[in-house]
Amino acid sequence: MHNTTYDRRIFSPGLLFRDLGFLISRVPALARARRNPEIGRAFMEKIMMVVTAVNGCTYCTWFHAQQAVTSGMSDKEISDMFDLQFEASASEHELPALLFAQHFAETNRNPDPDMVARLNAFYGTETARDIMLLIRMIFFGNLFGNTLDAFPARLKGKKAENSSVLFEFLFWLATFWMVFPAKWILRRRDPADTTPVSTGENP
Fold this sequence. Notes:
Elements (H helix, E strand, L loop, with lengths): L4 E2 L6 H13 L1 H8 L6 H15 L2 H13 L4 H8 L12 H12 L6 H11 L1 H31 L3 E2 L4 H23 L16
Parallel strand pairs: 1-2
Helix pairs in contact: 1-8, 2-8, 3-4, 3-6, 3-8, 6-7, 6-8, 7-8, 8-9
């Protein structure tokens, strides 16, 4: 039977504005998190890829695969992150954060309190807070990309549950001009500089 459901998580109007307000209010904290020496660029990209693998955002997959290459990650590490088989490619320092990132995304931002407590115990309050901010940032990016694709998917017969065509159309109209030039650039990137990845979702 033909699948008629667009099964990626997307924004509702209320969630969009709540998340946008949350991130805007924490711009300085996000800037600090990106400079945290306990995290580092490659570690940060692994977090981004694990969350993206769960949410299946095509745009974030392309972008963070490219960023991972420039951060020095190997093809196998990148593939493992997107396949959620990261235990073999993560250090002991990285593994708790990556497991938490996967859990956070799979529970749709409702992590078990014990998982939060373990994250704090392992990394300390400040670094754990920075990791959670980075997870929230990429989660927002994932839903942004998925919501952008929801209206074209609806036109092809795949409708997102509990969503309206008006919201999807207005979101697409307001944002496509920002994303599609980047999509075109990423599609034209040098194939020798990238790694094929699987998100577990159809584009």
